[in-house]
Known about the structure:
There is one protein chain. The chain is α+β, with helices and mostly antiparallel strands. It folds into 2 domains: 2-65 and 179-337, Aminopeptidase (3-Layer(aba) Sandwich); 67-163, CATH 2.40.30.40. 24% of the residues lie in helices and 29% in strands. It has helices at residues 2-9, 19-31, 119-122, 125-128, 147-153, 180-199, 264-277, 292-298, 323-337; strands at 36-38, 44-48, 50-62, 67-73, 79-84, 96-102, 105-114, 136-140, 160-163, 168-169, 174-177, 203-212, 229-237, 251-257, 260-261, 281-285, 304-310, 319-322. Strands 1, 2, 3, 12, 13, 14, 15, 16 and 17 form a 9-stranded mixed sheet that branches. The two termini are 30 Å apart.
Amino acid sequence: MLDVLLHLLRTPSPSGRTDAVMQYIGDILTQADVPFELTRRGSLVAGLDGRSEAAHRALVVHADTIGCMVRELKDNGRLSVIPVGTFSARFAEGARVTIFAEDPPRTFSGTILPLKASGHAFGDEVDSQGVGWDHVEVRVDERCRTADDLVALGFEIGNFVALDASPEVTSNGFVVSRHLDGKAGVAAALAAMKAVHDSGVTLPIKANLLITIAEEVGQGASHGLDADVAEMISVDNAVCAPGQASIEHGVTIPMADMSGPFDHHLTRRLCRMCADAGIEYARDTFRWYRSDVAAAIEAGAGTRAALIAFGLDASHGWERTEVESIRSVARLLTIWLQTPLTYSRWDTSPTGPLREFPSRDQPAPEQRWGQLDRDGRTGEQPE
């Protein structure tokens, strides 16, 4: 799993330029003999058959990352850029980058620097200058002194700029890198799918792995899901920071993000799975965060949806996680894939009658609707 993660991290894949990383993921699934196909746009859908085909569940991760795009070829021979995805220019300053020219296809190295980058030249102004995308530029590692020099090398507006990940694995089990957001989830999901496939176990229901390519720009799982997905889990990063309850060394089960609460029954069920399996976990809520779940629900998916998060410090900056956290996520996914749906009878159909709706134990006692209990039925209990 760790080797796969490092290869993923070293393969640039800013949103909008993800073909290379999807080729690598496809090669992994081919070697594992897991069938898959690609959508027109390039998302990948892999499947594991189950005893029941009545409804499917989906495991969703994203392979795209934040990055930049060239906005202007500057008169000083440097590049102005805009962000691809949401992140602060503060975390871009000092980043080594790869710039993708297109005609002819060629890559260049460079560095994102503040406009006043030398203390010897600008003194205290280095600290007092503004922070933002209008205050940084890309210094290309070529002899470029003018905009014409850039044109002669093949640079154009719209060229992609990838932030180099520069991953490092420490001797005590930390992974420090850019772009762990997303790619650690891909590594965990691939490990879980491979473990289930290699075990030869027959899943209770069919499970699809959807790897999306535009989560960082808000589109994510807006396409690629089957029409009748009963249950969906996305894997993404936790928020390890002051004021948050996320943990870096285990699994975090978010209760809500900025798009609203995740499915009540599925999230609590995941917590019970962690407790039963001895997987250390925490519950948290994320205030400035969205994931593939939001994109799927907003696109009309009528599914239960939840998020499982691996620990991550300094998300969208110089990120850090623990190998043990990624392994714990993979273990939880492996368990979940082998369980029935949250409500195995109710969830197999997109709709059903009120009297069979299985959430009658959710309201507080004083809110119960007594007339619905006249037939003595208590509703289906969660698995």
